[in-house]
Amino acid sequence: MVENNRWGNILAHIILILGVAIVVFPVYVAIIASTHPPGTFVRGVMPLLPGPNAIENYTTVVTQGRSQAGTPPIGGMLWNSFIMAMAITIGKLSISIISAFAIVYFKFPFRIFFFWVIFLTLMLPVEVRIVPTFQVVADLGMLNSFAGLSIPLIASATATFLFRQFFMTVPEELMEAARVDGAGPMKFFKDILLPLSITNIAALFVIMFIYGWNQYLWPLLITTDPEYYTIVMGIQRMVTGGDSEPLWHLVMATVVLAALPPVLVILFMQRLFVKGLTETEK
Amino acid sequence: MQTKRMTFSSKWLPYALLAPQVIITLIFFIWPSYQALLQSVYRQGDAFGIRPPTFVWFDNFKALFADTLYLNSLKVTLIFSVGTTLLSMSVALLFAVMVNRMIRSRDSYTTFLVWPYAVAPAIAGVLWWFIFNPSIGIMPYVLDMFGYDWNHRRNSQDAMMMVIIAAAWKQISYNFLFFLAGLQSIPHSLIEAAAIDGASRMKRFWTIVFPLLSPITFFLMVVNIVYAMFDTFGVIHATTEGGPAQATNILVYKVYRDGFVNLNIGSSAAQSVILMAIVIILTVIQFRYIERRVNY
Fold first, then answer.
1. Which one of A97, A162, B31, B87 has the fewest beta carbons within 10 angstroms of its own beta carbon?
2. What is the pLDDT of residues A96-147, one digit of tens each?
3. pLDDT higher than 50, residue B222
4. Model pTM score
5. Which of A107, A110, A131 to mutate to test the interface with B (most CBs of B within 10 A)?
6. Residue A111 Cα to chain centre, angstroms
7. Which CATH superfamily is domain A82-230+261-280 in?
8. Helix, strand or coil, per DSSP, at residue B140
9. How many inter-chain contacts (A to B, CB under 8 Å) are there?
10. Per-residue confidence (pLDDT) for residue B296, from 0 to 100
11. Do A2 and B122 touch (CB under 8 A)?
12. DSSP class of B246
């Protein structure tokens, strides 16, 4: 047995507690800032204890936003983000699982070719082909719409690979049994494969939801109508939307609301999250 | 590439199942990339249609590599990605090694360290931007007590430090989880054997644990560089906007600026093509690593 070093353990705890404190610090500051009245931020350094204005600030951002700077209420933006994240997640999962099914359970001409077409999407993130992708979406008339926000982002090589990997581990006998019993491919998919994949689907759901919620560049490009702003990109409008220093108490209340849903998802589904994260990289 | 031993037979069904994925890939991935390739070898026509686009071979690329702004952006991107990767990975490794020693408190520490993964890069940027705000932020106040006058609005190095910290902070969780998984897969007997031979804790770490972690370290390096190069657009755009004096103008931000703000399509397309080449190289490296790991 490796020696048990008492002081070493205490030192490790100290390092970790300090580490956790540093990791949590930015969010702590944001939460504190979101509870102060606007006056606090003109009088020098930011306080470290909560102020009295929490309810007022959150009500302001959710229902009014910064109307004088052209930023819509946060309530609507949160809803848009939710719709976009769900559309991207469900879209990615459904098209990936059926393409993986086709690649594993059928033999057909050009199978390898299609596999490579899907694989290419890994190599072409939006960031590297911004202008032409924007032009395509504009030509299709999809600017300022939920379709434009989500459809271009739902092709996913990683999810397809993960499902393919998983399908390869499903015992052959299941399919043979299904065929003996006269089940067609879609019946086999629906009644056997889908129920078996449920944990994988859930783990990917967590990862994809976070990915969708946190989209920034894409909504920035294709939404000009405040009605379609999502919350993560809306923060940038709040920071730069005015002519003077940002209204920090409102910006930070928005930041907290924008970060909350995905953080809650991770905290409540930590096991699935870890599974999804480590398996999509295999 | 294999299928199942026994497969379903249908002439049209597999194509129908693949269709949604393939159509979206063609319209939104392959076609725009082809356009970027095409635009990168043309000089754009003017807005009035008097001068049509002309084919200019590699002039756009030549112009880029003669442009001091672009060379500066390359340098900035290099510093930014290496800085983010090193900072984030070393902090994460320290945390993972410490957490791995714990038995009862392991899960609670993990919970506290994983959630920043969920914070969008743009939000991470705004959070640190606020902390470092020269007039009301806490860090400048503390640094001032040590006699350092922090101002990321004027000082290039301060601005670079700030975006690196913001980008690295968000990535710690990811690196931490992979390092922790790696540490837990190291056979305990190896470490015990070294302890019996009298190797100190530090020595055990550097001669046994760290070399055994090297595949994971290498993999994380590639993932982190990809992250720093392509996913950090929000950190820059929401805070420094490439400034002051181009000090944080990383490549993805420059593509966006040149394409949408300065409307220089040819140059932006050439930059896209270079970025694509970088992603393809990094993806190939990443996949070669994965093939190697499967063989272990």
1. B31
2. 999 999 999 988 888 888 888 888 887 777 777 888 888 889 999 888 889 8
3. yes
4. 0.89
5. A131
6. 31
7. MetI-like (1.10.3720.10)
8. helix
9. 299
10. 36
11. no
12. T
